[in-house]
């Protein structure tokens, strides 16, 4: 074995023995560095004859190249190993829990969501959204709606009154959203198409009644709208709201002071246990009241009932929310039990629309 | 109102089945509440024969029976005197419910002998009051058969709810009329058959109202003498029992029967107990009446009463008196038939808290054209059931017939209902309901029958026609679209309300809907509680006043949840608050409440770092984020230390555009308020009044301003100022921003320090300033220059020194 071969074998041993990049660098310095063993061999060339230098020089340079390559190879291996070691070191327990974040924790109350759904449907049919105050006058809540003076609804038994004023008059909490009909007719010229969702109040508190609840009123006033239109609007609404292809409806004659003719509407449903499915089955479920606006109401709002006509309807928002989403108890709507709100509430980005679906 | 199918068929000639009747009732607007089969409870009972009957070994009055109910002999102990071998009767097995008591029959041991069933009396089955012995059936009754099936003839009971506008259907005949009009059969004729008077009425009557007879426009009556009162016949008792009334005596049962058959309440007085003239008049304070319900009612001037010369005999239209009523001993009666003003009758009944079948009808309006006819009908029934002879009829006043006639253009039917009906159909429908149609052509005169006080005008006639023809006949008609593509319809406030809810929910808050009313002391705490917002009839003291703020309702909700074991909550509500009782005093608030450690990242402990208790800054962040979401430029709002006094004075503030435009309050609740709300802190709240946000000016276009992007690197420099503790950081930030408005693009406060490294009463505020060059890269000199300007500006504004 030549001295070069001996040196090479020794260097390659050192390279393979280098456990990390620092050790490898030491080997490089000890071989290819200025004071290194390979460099020292090269320095010996100067004292040689040209012939000797030619053969000996080629051999040393070849050694230098091989050593360089071996170091580079080893370096690559050590780098990979170092990266592997780092990755292993950096490993975390990805099963640790993260916080869900505000978007996952926030909720929209079902009443708000259902009002948004109702609004999406009716605005598509050309309705706008009207509002009125919760504290109403006897005029708007009763008289202008054709309630006779002795109507039982005017009694303390049903209606919340505020304390009488000096002049004996007393305001009340609206018992229905119908006062918005009159306020709208006074404010706007026909054609009118509005819905009016809002809070309503009655002196009632038991298993199925709460002193405060939500209604949505609908009103159309123009010169042509008749009962056939009312039927269409409500049927279209019910289909869209309950997200079913067909609904059966049954319009039954009924009585409200502010409509004539008046009807109650039943929707076809299927009951199994406590569950009610709209759009299937042979049972009926009363869902809303409606009718053609009474001539006296049109007149009391300053319009001519021989020229203007239209329909009105009123529906319990909480009630249709319960029917659609299956809440069993109305009282829970106003209890703010966070377990209920998280269960029945909606996500902040559950935005009902007709193009994206009321529920998605 | 309840009636039976056979009762209906007294007035309606029809072959219709029960289902068809129910369907037709529903479709004409007489809502069917319930249909019940009175024989249903009797179905399990079977016909059985007593095979043997011997004396009970241990009791003289009891017998030991062997009963065959079709399934072999059964041993029964029986006390009935008529129990004997060979008798066929009705047998109850253990486990069955005895109708009269509702109790479940069990296997018993009577005087040491087991009894495995019961032979029933009529009373036990609810058939009658007969309890002297067990039921005896004919010898051919088949053993083992259901007693109900064998008995047959069960008359279904129909319960309908009558809307307040239809007093005519508070009698079976009125219901029959509607069904006949619907085509379910023919209304049977009902010719008036007056009973001739055999003698002059010995009881004089009078109306005494000082000229205004509206409380009682007609009062009619007559005497029947020589009669014999007693139990009414079975058919009448069965009718009354079927609808839940207790038969009392023939005279009483007749008045009850006519109340339900014709909607015609009557009253029968014992003529021998009357003194002088019977009159209708207003009551007098101090008078009272012992009514038929056994209670005494005080009378006043607002009430109409019936009285004789001695005393008040009855509350007109509501209830008669106990002392002048008929009894078993009565032999001479005065029958009263009158019309009482609906409104006054209703008020009297409400005032006294007194309900009756008579009041129910009078306050809705009985047929004013059936006062005398009803009297005749009653007379005939009295004569038929009790005998005697009738006097002549005496009448004071006149039947108040409205005689309404409506000009009715038939085109109204199409105009309002959309239904195209032939004139003949309209006429026929109205006439079947008792309307008289005269004239010809497109518009006719329609006379309204006296029993329809609800029909006033054209729209009512349209309803009558459409109701009977069928609402289901009206085709659904599409409402024409107003615009090809739906347009924006929500008002700015409506848009804000919706957006506020989504924005707050997106910040992790859960939406609650709480009552619009709060307890008065709570309302007072939050700036409300005025007399103008106090309910006269709250449902409870906790719900007495309209809420001035959403905070108390939300805090109460947080507390309820905490009491259930769910603390650290973030709740919000967007809803109405009330500053007064006028419409303009109602505004919409969006309010966020955070309690415990329910900050934006979520509450509770966590391995990455547990949540910290909420502070005023959590509320401030909610308020600003909400305003930002609602389009308010929050770089321009003012934060001022002036919040309402339900907030902690040192840890709260308001957000305003100017002193006149306060948009929101935020902060930690005042410790005293937290205590008054019976809860514990920390609780922070942000309340934004949505109405107060100015509506943005309409812009000509929807384009946004051009975006100018600089090509040069931004540069950041940090400064630490030492200032007196009382100096507000906003003042430093404002001074920095003013030092070079063109170059300074951002100011961040990244540290506020108080402690051993600064003097007492001072704090160090560390600020990072971002410089945004627009025309060239900044040189060291440029930066040095602006730094000096910043330091000088802050020193001038606050007296700060650069921290060493």
Would you write up a description of this structure?
The complex is a heterodimer of chains A (360) and B (804). Chain A is built from 12 helices and 10 strands. Chain A is of the alpha+beta class and 360 residues long. In chain A, a hairpin with a 2-residue loop joins strand 7 (259-272) and strand 8. In chain A, helix 6 crosses helix 11 (317-325). The longest helix of chain A has 41 residues, at 50-90. Chain A starts with a helix and ends in a 16-residue tail after the last helix. The relative contact order of chain A is 0.11. The model of chain A has no long low-confidence stretch (mean pLDDT 92). Chain B has 804 residues and is an alpha+beta fold. Chain B folds into 6 domains: 2-38 and 155-187, Phenylalanyl-tRNA Synthetase, Chain B, domain 1 (2-Layer Sandwich); 40-151, Beta Barrel (OB fold (Dihydrolipoamide Acetyltransferase, E2P)), CATH 2.40.50.140; 205-397, Phenylalanyl-tRNA Synthetase, Chain B, domain 3; 405-473, Phenylalanyl-tRNA Synthetase, Chain B, domain 1; 492-692, Bira Bifunctional Protein, Domain 2 (BirA Bifunctional Protein, domain 2); 715-802, Alpha-Beta Plaits, CATH 3.30.70.380. In chain B, strands 28-31-32-36-35-34-33 form a 7-stranded mixed β-sheet, with helices on both faces. A 5-stranded antiparallel β-sheet of chain B has the order 6-5-4-7-10, with no helix packed on it. In chain B, strands 13-16-19-20-21 form a 5-stranded mixed β-sheet. Chain B is elongated and about 130 Å long.
The H-and-E topology of chain A, N to C, reads as: HHHHHHEEHEHEEHEEEEHEHH
Any idea how many domains of chain A?
2
Tell me the count of domains of chain B: 6
* Spatial separation of the terminal alpha carbons of chain B: 93 Å
Number of helices of chain A: 12
Number of E-state strands of chain A: 10
Instruction: Flag low-confidence runs of chain B.
Output: none
Q: Helicity level of chain B, as a percent range?
A: 25-40%
Cα separation of the termini of chain A: 82 Å
Name the CATH superfamily assignment of the largest domain in chain A.
Bira Bifunctional Protein, Domain 2
Extract low-pLDDT stretches of chain A. Answer: none
* CATH C-level of the largest domain in chain A: Alpha Beta
Number of separate strands of chain B: 40
């Amino acid at each position: 074995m030549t001295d070069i071969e001996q040196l090479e074998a020794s260097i390659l041993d050192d390279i393979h023995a280098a456990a990390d990049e620092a050790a490898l660098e030491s080997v490089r310095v000890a071989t290819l560095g200025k004071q290194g063993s390979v460099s020292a061999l090269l320095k010996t060339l100067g004292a040689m004859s040209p012939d000797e230098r030619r053969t000996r020089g080629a051999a040393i340079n070849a050694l230098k190249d091989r050593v360089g390559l071996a170091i580079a190879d080893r370096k690559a291996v050590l780098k990979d190993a170092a990266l592997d070691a780092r990755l292993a070191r950096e490993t975390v327990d990805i099963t640790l829990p993260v916080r869900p974040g505000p978007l996952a924790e926030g909720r929209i109350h079902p009443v708000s969501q259902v009002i948004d759904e109702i609004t999406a449907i009716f605005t598509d049919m050309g309705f706008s959204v009207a509002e009125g105050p919760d504290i109403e006058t006897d005029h708007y809540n009763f008289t202008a709606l054709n309630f006779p003076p002795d109507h039982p609804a005017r009694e303390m038994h049903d209606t919340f009154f505020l304390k009488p004023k000096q002049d004996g008059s007393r305001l009340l909490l609206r018992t229905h959203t119908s006062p918005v009909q009159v306020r709208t007719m006074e404010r706007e010229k026909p054609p009118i198409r509005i819905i009016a969702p809002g809070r309503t109040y009655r002196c009632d508190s038991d298993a199925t009644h709460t002193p405060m609840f939500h209604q949505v009123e609908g009103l159309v006033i123009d010169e042509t709208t008749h009962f056939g239109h009312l039927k269409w609007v409500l049927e279209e609404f019910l289909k869209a709201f309950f997200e079913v292809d067909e609904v059966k409806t049954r319009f039954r004659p009924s009585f409200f002071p502010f409509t004539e003719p008046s009807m109650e509407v039943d929707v076809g449903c299927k009951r199994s246990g406590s569950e009610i499915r709209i759009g299937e089955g042979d049972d009926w479920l009363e869902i809303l009241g409606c009718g053609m606006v009474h001539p006296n109401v049109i007149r009391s709002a300053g319009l001519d009932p021989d020229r203007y006509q239209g329909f009105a309807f009123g529906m319990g928002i909480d009630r249709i929310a319960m029917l659609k989403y299956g809440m069993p108890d109305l009282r829970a709507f106003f209890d703010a039990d966070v377990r209920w709100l998280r269960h029945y509430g909606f996500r902040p980005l559950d935005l009902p629309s007709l193009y994206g679906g009321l529920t998605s | 109102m309840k009636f039976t199918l056979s009762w209906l068929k007294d007035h309606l000639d029809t072959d219709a089945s029960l289902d068809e009747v129910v369907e037709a009732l529903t479709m004409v607007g007489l809502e069917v509440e319930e249909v019940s089969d009175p024989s249903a409870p009797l179905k399990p009972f079977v016909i059985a024969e007593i095979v043997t009957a011997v004396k009970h070994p241990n009791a003289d009055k009891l017998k030991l029976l062997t009963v065959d109910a079709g399934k072999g002999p059964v041993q029964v102990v029986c006390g009935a005197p008529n129990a004997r071998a060979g008798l066929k009767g009705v047998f109850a097995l253990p486990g069955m419910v005895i109708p009269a008591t509702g109790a479940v029959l069990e296997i018993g041991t009577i005087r040491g002998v087991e009894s495995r069933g019961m032979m029933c009396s009529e009373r036990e089955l609810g058939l009658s009051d007969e309890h002297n012995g067990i039921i005896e059936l004919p010898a051919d009754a088949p053993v083992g058969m259901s007693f109900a099936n064998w008995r047959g003839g069960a008359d279904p009971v129909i319960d309908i709810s009558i809307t307040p506008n239809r007093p005519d259907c508070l009698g079976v005949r009125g219901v029959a009329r509607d069904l006949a009009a619907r085509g379910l059969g023919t209304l049977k004729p009902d010719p008036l058959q007056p009973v001739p008077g055999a003698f002059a009425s010995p009881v004089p009557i009078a109306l005494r109202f000082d000229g205004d007879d509206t409380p009682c426009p007609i009062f009619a009556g007559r005497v029947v003498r020589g009669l014999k009162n007693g139990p009414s016949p079975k058919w009448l008792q069965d009718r009354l029992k079927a609808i839940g009334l207790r038969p009392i005596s023939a005279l009483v049962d007749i008045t009850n029967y006519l109340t339900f058959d014709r909607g015609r309440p009557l009253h029968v007085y014992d003529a021998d107990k009357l003194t002088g003239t019977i009159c209708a008049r207003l009551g007098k304070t101090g008078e009272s009446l012992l009514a038929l319900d056994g209670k005494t009612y005080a009378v006043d001037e607002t009430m109409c009463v019936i009285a004789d010369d001695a005393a008040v005999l009855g509350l007109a239209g509501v209830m008669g008196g106990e002392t002048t009523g008929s009894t078993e001993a009565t032999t001479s009666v005065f029958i009263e038939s009158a019309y009482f003003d609906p409104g006054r009758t209703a008020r009297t009944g409400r005032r006294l808290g007194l309900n009756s079948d008579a009041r129910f009808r009078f306050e809705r309006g009985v047929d004013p054209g059936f006062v005398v006819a009803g009297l005749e009908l009653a007379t005939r029934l009295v004569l038929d059931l009790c005998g005697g002879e009738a006097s002549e009829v005496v009448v004071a006043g006149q039947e108040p017939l409205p005689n309404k006639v409506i000009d009715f253009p038939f085109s109204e039917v199409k105009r309002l209902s959309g239904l195209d009906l032939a004139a003949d159909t309209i006429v026929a429908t109205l006439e079947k309901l008792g309307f008289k149609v005269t004239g010809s052509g497109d518009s006719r005169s329609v006379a309204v029958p006296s029993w329809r006080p609800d029909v006033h005008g054209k729209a009512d006639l349209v309803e009558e026609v459409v109701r009977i023809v069928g609402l289901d006949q009206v085709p659904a008609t599409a409402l024409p679209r107003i615009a090809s593509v739906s347009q924006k319809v929500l008002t700015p406030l409506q848009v804000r309300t919706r957006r506020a809810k989504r924005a707050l929910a997106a910040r992790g808050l859960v939406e609650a809907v709480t009552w619009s009313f709060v307890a008065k002391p709570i309302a007072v705490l939050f700036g409300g509680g005025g007399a103008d917002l106090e309910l006269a009839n709250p449902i409870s003291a906790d719900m007495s006043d309209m809420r001035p703020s959403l905070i108390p309702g939300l805090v109460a909700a947080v507390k309820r949840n905490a009491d259930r074991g769910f603390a650290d909550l973030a709740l919000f509500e967007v809803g109405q608050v009330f500053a007064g009782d006028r419409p303009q005093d109602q505004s919409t608030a969006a309010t966020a409440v955070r309690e415990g450690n329910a900050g934006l990242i979520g509450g509770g402990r966590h391995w990455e770092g547990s949540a910290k208790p909420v502070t005023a800054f959590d509320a401030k962040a909610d308020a600003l984020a909400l305003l930002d979401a609602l389009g308010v430029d929050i770089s321009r709002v003012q934060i001022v230390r002036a919040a309402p006094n339900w907030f902690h004075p040192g840890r709260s503030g308001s957000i305003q555009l100017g002193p006149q435009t306060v948009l929101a309050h935020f902060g930690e609740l005042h410790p005293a308020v937290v205590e008054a709300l019976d809860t514990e802190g920390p609780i922070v709240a942000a309340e934004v009044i949505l109405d107060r946000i100015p509506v943005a000016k309409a812009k000509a276009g929807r384009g946004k301003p051009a975006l100018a992007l600089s090509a040069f690197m931004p540069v950041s420099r940090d400064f630490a100022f030492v200032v007196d503790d009382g100096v507000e950081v906003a003042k430093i930030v404002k001074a920095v921003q003013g030092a070079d408005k063109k170059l300074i693009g951002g100011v961040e406060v990244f540290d506020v320090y108080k402690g051993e490294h600064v003097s007492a009463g001072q704090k160090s505020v560390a600020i990072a300033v971002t410089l945004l060059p627009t025309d060239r890269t900044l040189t060291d000199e440029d930066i040095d220059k602006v730094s000096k300007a910043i330091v000088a500006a802050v020193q001038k504004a606050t007296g700060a020194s650069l921290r060493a």
